Amino acid sequence: MARPVLLVGSIPLQSSEEVFREVADRIGPLLKRVPDGETGERSAWTAWQGGVVEKAEGVVRSGERDLHGMAYPTYSLKPDTQAKDIKFGPLGYASSARESYATFRRLREQGANQRARFQVSVPTPLAVVQAFFWGSPALPDICAVYEKALLAEVDDILTAIPNDDLSIQWDIAVEFHRIWEKPDSDLAKQFPSEGLIETIARLSDHIPVPVELGWHFCYGDAGHKHFVEPRDTKLMTAIANRLTRASRRSATWLHLPVPRDREDIAYFAPLASLELTPHTELFLGLIHLTDGLEGARRRMAAADTVVTEYGVATECGFGRRSPHTILPLLDLHRTVAQQLLERRQDTLRS
What does pTM read for this prediction? Predict the structure, then answer.
């Protein structure tokens, strides 16, 4: 893996142009794909979709809830309205991608990120719907309506951006920390596991083969802590295997988080059962700014006992980080990746 770095998505600098420039200068040759950083109103992942839901036909604001330290408005169906009657306007993902890609192309003409594709990260429908319609008995039906709107956005992106210059990543988060890790929860009763697999496979198969497809398995990063700490990689391995079997097309990459305090072989051991296709790259989110290169080395040493081919990343996006930490974190990606490549070369020589 000659370009072993994955940027998960959000990079809260001032603008997408600043993201593209800093990434090119600090990591460039080690990347296959570059996100626009989800800057501005998109920096808090799904929070910006509240404005979209507010304008949707068929819903009414019903209250507010605290979601990991942020106030989220909540909505319900209007009286005598069914989920199928909801009409979402433009969600904004396509317009943001078109605008960012124009900047990406302009900077590429100036020499930045010459060998990298443009990466778009998109949440699954459940991530948005459960945030704003929490507790609604109609959640599955609302998800179905939002999914159609979201795939229309994806289609717009596919039309606007050359497919051989595009990577699309599905952010799979709520499914893990609210359902698969909590199978007895109320949300799990509304969304059986098999249905979730079918949905993510359907979303994945919607991406045409010339476009790269990524799966980002996410346990969250509020306050630099996972919403649920993964005990090891067993569940993630099982879900990855099920998705690989359920999807008609291969994922281009799979990203898994690695908690900061997990430098033990036991955490990585289940990866021995990972059944990815030969076309799928594995990225481990083992980069943590708090313990830097030395911590990454320890986690890589443990991972090396189980998997031999993988790239590196952080466990989640950077959206909740202080701005002054972003550039050092980008530099750390380069340093860890160079260390990884040296380890691979040493292994080949031995």
Answer: 0.95
